[in-house]
Amino acid sequence: AASDVYKRQDYICLKNVDNYNRKEDIPIGWTISGNIGYNLYNYHNDNMIDNVLYGVNFSSAIMKLGYAGLSLDFQRKYDYCIFDAKARYFFPNNSEVKYRFGFGIDYIALRVDNMDRQLIADGRSGFRGFPAYYQVGTPDENQHFLKMSAQFRLFPDYELLTIRPGFTIFADFGGAQWKDYSNLRNRYSDINTHNNWGWMCDFGISIQLCSTRSSTGNINRFDISYNPQTKTIGFTIDSGRALNFFLPMTISPFLNE
């Protein structure tokens, strides 16, 4: 395998972006990277496995009226091709304010040769309050995942017993299966077509607690969300992880790797 990276990067120091009253290095500039390799371990001599593996990534971010970041990634691996696009925007872009508006878009297109991989949309991939495997990708060689998010973050200048609180109003929209494929169960009996289809949506509030004594600035997050599709209220706890909204979020789209 071989890889190469070309980049022109810089950083801007801000407070109250993903953390509370702490200086954060926000990356700007651009990066281009590529990789190529060869699969030496095709144990089963499967003709559907592509032995040549390659990929390319482009990411760029600017800081003008706000922060705007874009990441594009394409990978060909074994028996599938995947295209991943992420966009992030937040404003205002100075350290004096105690609030931020943020918007994010995540899109994944997956093409599989033998249909043993599917995209999923649930609580783990950013749809807060939805149960695991709520939506499973279409039983087709071409699959799509879309998630759009909006946030309003408030950073109050208040501290109680070394704990600094924060508040967020959020909404998420998207999904991984927008048509009803239940009539294909007989044709695709070995693939989970799933009953949950259509657009997914959740909205709610979040409370963040950050210790001013923490050396890493990790945040404990408590989300309360409502899901119109399931008509349920969900509670999500994320402990010890920074929010990192301005960075491309990691999505785990596969049922099995």
Account of the protein in words:
The chain is mostly beta strands and 257 residues long. It is 0% helix and 53% strand. The protein is built from no helices and 13 strands. It has strands at residues 2-14, 24-38, 52-63, 67-77, 80-91, 99-112, 120-121, 135-136, 142-154, 163-175, 200-211, 219-227, 232-238. It has an 11-stranded antiparallel β-sheet with strand order 1-2-3-4-5-6-9-10-11-12-13, with no helix packed on it. A two-stranded antiparallel ribbon has the order 7-8. A hairpin with a 7-residue loop joins strand 11 (200-211) and strand 12. It is globular, with a radius of gyration of 20 Å. Mean pLDDT is 76; it is low at 189-193 and 248-257.
Give a brief rundown of this model.
This protein has 257 residues and is mainly β. The chain has no helices and 13 strands.
Which band does the percent of strand residues land in? over 45%
Low-confidence stretches: 189-193, 248-257
Biggest sheet descriptor: 11 strands, antiparallel
Mean pLDDT across every amino acid position:
76
Number of discrete helical segments: 0
Radius of gyration: 20 Å
Query: Which overall shape is indicated by the principal axes computed on the Cα atoms?
Result: globular
List keywords for this structure.
257 residues, mainly beta, eleven-stranded antiparallel β-sheet, two-stranded antiparallel sheet, 0% helix
